[in-house]
Write a structure and sequence with these properties.
Length: about 725
């Protein structure tokens, strides 16, 4: 191993990265390309594929300037957060990681394409320009088999050095300025990008001595402007060749190159940048007049606000039986105020595409439909066509129905999206205007059995509950916030805990700090280097199950009053890392908890969800056709013991969990056994880890939860795990 490869690893270790952190960052054991491996992967590509003199324009890429410019800030993810690094640490980490002109050029191209195209289009263009420079079939075959590692490495460099972040800013600015149309460059326009990039390398029209590139594509002009912003200073977009110096390369918008033959329908431009503070701004990009867009924003906001009477909470479906094997499926319970009388088709539309026929949403949609300048029969036909996914449905009515359901689900899901770990808080949606794709995505989710009529709320309004699968919420959130593709959406199955789209969306439990009901309902939106996350070829993170910790019998010891069991104030929280399932499936992610570097537990996100759900709440239970439904509700003090009763517990120290062990004091079986107590100072990773360790047998914890009362002296935030032999209090 060369010294230059070892240097960043040693530097990472010196600033607090564990061996596990470094293994994840370098992609150890996985066939992925990372920023640390990029130099060597690129050398192999150039040698094996025999790509001759890829960049004859020697002055196009100034490696020294690029090294200097893109070495001032790094985006490195550690312990569930972006690590703040001092300039001296950055210099140490990047020492020996300077890149040649080829790697820098391809990194900038990758960043620009990431900002302006789909993943499919980006891969096609990169592969084509490499293949064009390869003179023999063996090299082209090598590219087909192994070039994806190079693409990943270039993307890893661009993400880690925040080049992609800059490219997105530039692309969005050009969209606002009207230089290009809203959305991503359609895949159908890929050939013009290929032609431009080949010219840029010196292999296109006129060879390396050609100084001008003419195009009728505003998208190609925009990509050229992004590349200029990123550091290809020699590249200039100008009206004519006379406007540039002899040393510069000119990109010229030449509308005479447009074909004057029969007009062809232009492909739709998918992809919308989402302002997470003012989500309705995305509707302003819709084609139309100012009056139309004002109306559309009103539709969006009315739908967004109509979810106010819908509460979303953690739930669980228990199926099977204890004699065979019970299954515990994470769900969301959606409780809403039932609607009054509405037109039949409005009610049908709400039932088909919303979480249920809630009062506020039904009234909001009815007001919108009533405003259409159509006969009652025509309104009925429009709603019926939407419900039936009629592809011929078009026009302003389709636009308003699409905007309504989009606004509705942004309002419903926004509280579930954790953006606290993003360097720039923004999102990316896969939808486009006047399109029925979002209705198809909504159809892909199964709405589970609703509970029968539940008691009215405090205002005597009739309430109802529906349950949605967690995988469906992940699909929808990835589509609306992370720019996931339809192929990714279609392949999300139970066990999937994350999607790598334009951004990365992960189950919040993977962050290691999901220690209460609200957090286990959330997803984390990230703009980090995705190569450190184990995933399959589609960019889906599919969990690999959890390791079972062994039982550790602890010595008998004196019990203490609950309020006397405390953790020393200086004790740090556990660390957590998303690691591959070593030795089994290197593409399957697991959460690994450590205490001062020593392993405590490995588990998957579903195990954390089920453990925190079982340990944190008193639940309503409903027996439906699919099985037993449980949903969380707020704790009631009436379930506690008498305030005058002193509760004793046996303290368990954190070091007793070292080595993936479950500390248990063997006691007589029964509800009066002395509880165990683990003090955590409310440190979230310790809480979620300890609860998950003790809840390995979820079925035992679930079925015993309603038999024991919550001990007096426990705060509402305390996690209470019910085992056959005793209770465990995580306080």
């Amino acid at each position: 191993m060369s010294v230059s490869f070892v240097t960043p690893i040693k530097a990472l270790s010196s600033v607090g990265f564990s061996i596990g952190d470094i293994a994840a960052i370098t992609g150890a054991g996985r066939a992925v390309g990372t920023w640390i491996k990029a130099k060597y992967i690129d050398q192999a590509l150039l040698e094996i594929a025999d790509v001759k003199d890829f960049l004859p324009r020697r002055s196009l890429v100034n490696t020294a300037e690029l090294d200097e410019r893109w070495s001032k800030d790094l985006s490195i993810f550690q312990d569930g957060r972006l690590l703040p690094l001092q300039s001296q640490d950055i210099k140490s980490i990047l020492k020996g990681s300077s890149y040649d002109g080829f790697t820098w050029f391809m990194t900038l191209l990758t960043a620009a394409l990431t900002a302006g195209t789909s993943e499919e289009c980006k891969r096609w263009v990169l592969l084509e320009i490499l293949s064009e420079r390869c003179d023999h079939d063996e090299g082209k075959e090598y590219l087909l088999h192994d070039a994806d590692r190079n693409f990943e490495a270039w993307c890893s460099i661009a993400t880690t050095r925040k080049i992609i972040e800059a490219a997105r800013r530039s692309w969005t600015r050009l969209e606002r300025d009207g230089t290009h149309q809203p959305g991503l460059i359609p895949f159908a326009d890929r050939q013009e990008l290929k032609r431009f990039f080949l010219w840029l390398t010196g292999a296109g029209e006129g060879g390396e001595h050609s100084r001008e590139f003419r195009t009728a594509s505003s998208d190609t002009i925009s990509i050229a402007l992004v590349l200029h912003d990123l550091g290809l200073a020699q590249l200039q977009v100008v009206p004519s060749l006379e406007d540039v110096l002899d040393s510069q390369l000119a990109v010229i918008l030449d509308e005479s190159r447009v074909s004057h033959g029969p007009a062809e329908s232009r492909p739709k431009r998918r992809g919308i940048c989402i302002n997470m503070i003012n989500l309705e701004e995305a509707i302003s990009l819709w084609p139309g007049t100012a009056m139309q867009n004002n109306r559309r924003r009103e539709v969006f906001l009315s739908a967004y606000q109509s979810v106010a009477d819908v509460s979303i909470n953690a739930a669980q479906l228990i199926s099977g039986n204890m004699l065979s094997r019970e299954d515990f499926q994470p769900l969301y319970a959606l409780e809403y105020i039932q609607q009054g009388r509405l037109p039949e088709m409005v009610s049908k539309f709400c039932t088909e595409y919303l979480v249920g026929p809630s009062h506020s949403a039904g009234q909001a949609l009815n007001r919108i439909v009533s405003g259409w300048a159509l006969s009652e029969t025509a309104k009925h036909q429009v709603l019926d066509a939407a419900v039936l996914l009629n592809p011929e449905l078009a026009g302003e009515q389709l636009a308003e129905l699409q905007i309504f359901v989009t606004g509705y689900y942004y309002g419903l899901l926004r509280p579930l999206i954790d953006t606290s770990r993003m360097s720039v808080v923004e999102a990316f949606a896969s939808w486009t205007w006047n399109d029925m794709e979002i209705f198809q995505v909504l159809r892909s989710g199964r709405k589970l059995h609703g509970e029968p009529k539940i008691p009215n709320d405090e205002k005597h309004r009739p309430m109802a509950v529906n349950h949605l699968e967690r995988t469906f919420i992940l699909k929808l959130a990835a589509y609306l916030f992370a720019g996931a593709t339809i192929e990714q959406i279609r392949n999300v199955r139970r066990g999937c805990c994350g999607v790598k789209g334009k951004f990365i969306l992960l189950d919040r439990t993977l962050m290691g700090d999901a220690d209460d009901i609200s957090k286990i309902c959330q997803f984390s939106l990230l703009d980090i280097d995705g190569t450190c996350l184990p995933s399959n070829s589609l960019g889906l993170l599919v969990a690999g199950g959890q390791d079972l910790a062994g039982i550790k019998s602890i010595n008998e010891r004196d019990s203490k009053q609950l309020n006397e069991i405390v953790l020393h104030a200086s004790v740090p929280d556990f660390t957590s890392l998303i690691e591959p399932k070593w030795g089994h499936d290197l593409n399957a992610p697991m959460i690994t908890y450590r205490r001062r570097g020593r392993i405590i537990h490995r588990c998957d996100p579903e195990a954390v969800f089920n453990a925190v759900f079982a340990a944190s709440s008193i639940t309503d239970v409903y027996y439906g056709t699919e099985g037993q439904f449980r949903r969380a509700k707020k704790l009631s003090r009436s379930t506690s013991r008498s305030d005058n009763e002193i509760v004793l517990a046996v303290p368990v120290e954190l070091e007793e969990f070292d080595g993936e062990k479950v500390p248990l004091l063997i006691q007589g079986v029964g509800s009066d056994s002395t509880p165990l107590c683990v003090a955590t100072n409310n440190l979230p990773k310790i809480r979620s880890c300890i609860a998950t360790i003790y809840c390995q047998d979820t079925s035992e914890s679930i079925h015993l939860a309603h038999l024991r009362k919550r001990p007096n002296g426990c705060s509402d935030q305390a996690l209470i795990v019910d085992l056959d032999s005793c209770q465990v209090i995580v306080k």
